[in-house]
């Protein structure tokens, strides 16, 4: 008798089974699915932040496909631009934390220091690499405490590839892309037609049929929230696309990406009334809703109640660490 076996709970066995049975994920096929299961709207949305990034390196096709397999309502991504103007899914403006760029001798001389949102940052910047060069890099886990076995197996994907993953899913899967660091991108990347980063971002969404206000027929077919920490970008794209937008709010020490406004300025009732003309909701950093101090949860702030009083949804970011 080996008692330890008897006490393995059934769900653990199931997890083990899933871990071993899990295939590796290529980009999906273009096959059409006729009657797709609609987006659920009876409970809060489950938004997969950078894909299933606890398991598989963030912002890769494999991480997004895994999130869909696990039941995410939306897949979330950060959009940046390459030197030659391609829109890519990548979180940091530097490649250092989540790719093998530091090991690539041919790129050793690409290291730079640029000002990014009020700070000087040194590293290998996405805006100094063409899409072709970016595609040669291999993505890895951001944190050492995560599963490292998928490091080096997947590449950076484009915004269009990300959209195709959502549209090719066998049920309705929404997308939740962020216009990332727009001031920095517009400073370093120029498009031949004179358009800005935010215009290119919207052009891509329109090209794939994304449109319609929250809960409209078009929106239910291809659900989309556009998110940004930069209020001027949100106001700009509101003239170009009627899809719902979410204003992101970082920790109380962080200023807005474009207008350098403080947390207190952008969460005042006056400001919520202003930004509420352009967005359906706020995406506040979770510690601004329930602050934590010395590993204890503190009483909640009044942010959710005040957002709701302004008829704004609240999509907290993010519950992964
Ligand atoms: C960044 O570095 C440059 C050159 O050393 C300096 O002129 C600039 O003030 C720095 N910017 C910030 C925000 O520290
Ligand atoms: C941003 O605002 C802070 C606080 O008012 C100020 O100290 C800082 O100089 C500002 N930065 C820029 C680049 O305007």
Which secondary structure elements does this structure contain, and how are they paired or packed?
Elements (H helix, E strand, L loop, with lengths): L2 H4 L3 H12 L25 E2 L12 H9 L4 E8 L5 E3 L22 E5 L2 E5 L7 H4 L24 H9 L6 E6 L2 H7 L8 H11 L9 H5 L4 E3 L2 H7 L7 E5 L13 H4 L2 H7 L5 E4 L7 E2 L2 E2 L5 H7 L3 E2 L7
Parallel strand pairs: 1-2, 2-6, 7-8, 8-9, 9-12
Antiparallel strand pairs: 2-3, 4-5, 10-11
Helix pairs in contact: 3-5
Catalytic activity: a sn-glycero-3-phosphodiester + H2O = an alcohol + sn-glycerol 3-phosphate + H(+)
GO molecular function: glycerophosphodiester phosphodiesterase activity
Enzyme class: hydrolase
Folded structure, characterized:
By secondary structure, this protein is an alpha/beta fold. The protein is about 25% helix and about 15% strand. It has 12 helices and 12 strands. The strands form 4 sheets. Strands 1, 2, 3 and 6 form a 4-stranded mixed sheet that branches. β4 and β5 form a beta hairpin. α3 (about 60-70) packs parallel to α5. The longest helix has 12 residues, at about 10-20. The two termini are about 40 Å apart. The model is unreliable at about 1-30 (pLDDT under 50). The structure holds 2-acetamido-2-deoxy-beta-D-glucopyranose (2 copies). One 2-acetamido-2-deoxy-beta-D-glucopyranose binds near residues 115, 118, 119 and 120. One 2-acetamido-2-deoxy-beta-D-glucopyranose binds near residues 115, 118 and 120. Pfam families: GDPD. One of its GO terms (molecular function) is glycerophosphodiester phosphodiesterase activity.
């Amino acid at each position: 008798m080996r008692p330890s076996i008897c006490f393995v709970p059934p769900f653990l066995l199931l997890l083990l089974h899933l871990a071993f049975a899990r295939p590796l994920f290529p980009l999906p096929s273009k096959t059409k699915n006729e009657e797709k299961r609609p987006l659920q709207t009876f409970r809060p949305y489950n938004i997969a932040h950078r894909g299933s990034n606890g398991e598989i390196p963030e912002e890769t096709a494999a991480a997004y496909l895994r999130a869909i397999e696990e039941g995410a309502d939306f897949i979330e991504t950060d959009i940046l631009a390459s030197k030659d103007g391609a829109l890519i899914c990548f979180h940091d403006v530097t490649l250092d934390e989540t790719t093998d760029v530091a090991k690539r001798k041919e790129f050793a001389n690409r290291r730079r220091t640029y000002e990014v949102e009020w700070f000087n940052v040194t590293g290998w910047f996405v805006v100094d690499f063409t899409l072709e060069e970016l595609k040669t890099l291999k993505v890895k886990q951001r944190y050492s405490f995560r599963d490292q076995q998928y490091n080096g197996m997947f590449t950076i994907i484009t915004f269009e590839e990300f959209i195709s993953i959502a549209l090719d899913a066998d049920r309705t899967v929404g997308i939740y892309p962020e216009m990332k660091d727009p001031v920095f991108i517009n400073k370093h990347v120029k498009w031949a037609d004179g358009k800005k980063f935010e215009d290119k971002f919207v052009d891509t969404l329109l090209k794939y049929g994304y449109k319609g206000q929250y809960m409209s027929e078009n929106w239910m077919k291809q659900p989309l929230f556009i998110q940004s920490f930069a209020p001027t970008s949100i106001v700009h794209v509101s003239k170009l696309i009627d899809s719902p937008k979410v204003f992101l709010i970082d920790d109380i020490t962080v200023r807005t990406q474009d207008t350098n406004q403080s947390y207190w300025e952008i969460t005042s009732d006056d400001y919520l009334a202003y930004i509420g003309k352009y967005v359906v909701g706020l995406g506040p950093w979770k510690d601004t809703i329930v602050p934590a101090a010395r590993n204890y949860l503190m009483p909640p702030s009044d942010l959710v109640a005040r957002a709701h009083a302004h008829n704004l949804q609240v999509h907290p970011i993010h519950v992964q660490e």
